[in-house]
Fold this protein.
Amino acid sequence: MASGRSPRQGDPERRRDPERRARILRAAADLASRRGFTTVSLADIGAEAGIVGSGIYRHFGSKASILVALLDQVMGRLMTRAAQIIAAPRSFLARTSISAAIDFSMDQFNAAPVAADRRVIDISGDGTSNAGRPITEARDEAVAKGVTINGLAIINTQASPGFTTHTQPPGGLPNYFRENVIGGAGAFLLVVENFETFADAMTRKLVNEIAGVPGNPRAAALKPF
């Protein structure tokens, strides 16, 4: 005798396949990297992942929820890597070379197994570049190759007296980043008022980049809560 009951949570037909969810996220990330997240529809993501009909809604209720899941993945990897960096031994007597960071990033682009339509370098820091080749030289070369460089300028008012010209250059650190660091199509600068608001700034930066939102030519200052 047939039963008229509805499938209960936990029944095989109601279970969400984690591999399918992972495929959706991989497809969304790939499309966003090539086209910008705002131009991609749920149908596009489903087609890229090989999922038709309403199957995508079993895992995500909207495109915004996919973006949140992508951000969670990125932030998880960033936090893991940050913990490794913090735990590693470090000499605080070394100098800062933003130009070397840009050159290293360009080397990674060149070594990548696939060619991306969008290439973005993020530079965050609480001071100027005081080592290596001229930063504007490295920036201009990267921009000439179609790369966008965004910046997060962290205001550090508690640096040791001997480092004040490094952390508080003439005209201010945000102005230094605008004139020497950022560049390229849609480049933007976020000014982080202190280290406590860095995580919030990082989230906003990732949303702007993944969504493909054009950068504001003026700095978006983040105030502490």
In short: The chain is about 45% helix and 10% strand.
